[in-house]
Amino acid sequence: MSSWDAWLAERSDLRAERGTERFDPVLRLGGPPGGLRDPLDLASNDYLGLSRDDRVVAAARDALERYGASATASRLVTGTLPVHRDLEAALCGLTGQPSALAFSTGYAANLGVLTALSGRGAEILLDAHAHASLHDAARMSRVPHATFAHNDADALDRELEARPDRRVLVAVESIYSVLGDAAPLRALADVCHRHGALLVVDEAHGIGVAGHGRGLVHELGLVGARDVVVTLTLSKALGSQGGAVLGPTTVRHHLVNTARSFIFDTGLAPASAGAACAAAGLVADDPSLAAAVRANAGTIAAICGIDQAAGAVQSLPMPSPERAVAAALELRAQGVLVGCFRPPSVPDGVSRLRVTARADLSGDDLYEAARLVARAAAIHGEAPGPGTVEGPRAGDAPSPVRGLPSVAAVEGVQPPAPPSPLGSIPPHGDDD
Known about the structure:
The protein is 39% helix and 13% strand. By secondary structure, it is α/β, with parallel strands linked by helices. It is globular.
């Protein structure tokens, strides 16, 4: 065995020992929505159900037939197509922002904006619970970076006070995908404005859900602020693939010239751009989509006995990675897919079941699935007390966790479990 083989085996054994081994099973077989072959999906990020919407699919097909399967080049060579301009205009129409620049992924958008806007003389401050893509971008920026306590505007104020002569970028999310809480964006924006810092807000989980679908930045009246830049993904509520940066036109021009994840990447695939363009128009024209996902999220939260989170994702804390996996596997065998978050993918070290509301869930399916989730969570253990952590990120400002219902609370709601359409599948992590 080579030294590399030995190292890989050692790392695999360590993950197995910690209960954090992950796999990539095929869980959805591509049958018709609601068909017998696929389980009920409460794990994906298709918050509004638009990935299978006939109008979105038709727009993707039209772009595919018109422009082909690929943009074929970087956006700065021949890879910018009319569909990219249409998409960027649609995103501006949805969010109210003056300009937009589409990237191939949300990860690439976050990487591009932080690396391009930092550089010599800059520092980056991140919310301790910010998405991994923002933390990775800070590391790759090769500038000093630090975290501040989660959703704590006073803590951010102190950090900025300590950097009076620095050009500082502050990176946060509008709605956090694990705890499901919303950022105090107005307070954070006020602090950044007072210190001359730039606030970068990742709206990955806000677009399509908050602000009648237009996002939390729009809802709170921060659109057009010169010191606020927004990033988002096209792969969640918009049901497609890709990402974007939105804000002042001067920022867009700077990114076109300096963002390496834009310059050295093939343009977003035409089908993805067409689908996202259509989806953005649907969300802008139909606020009932956002209202539906919020209503379904409230139903899930009520049945599971937890406080409703700000976004589509409702999070149930579990006492250990092993119990979280056991609960997720039990639900999978009953025909319900939920996410299973475990360290190191959770910012406070607490394993969770991640249950995603969708606007297109029918009442019967929603109620039945939520009852099954509540029961599985109750059976597989009580939640740890506030501040209890499990994983290596325990120092990242632990947050209190919500309680779980007792088995008695959901007793009697046990319809016969259908056989799994997928058979025995190893545990996995649906990390976001």
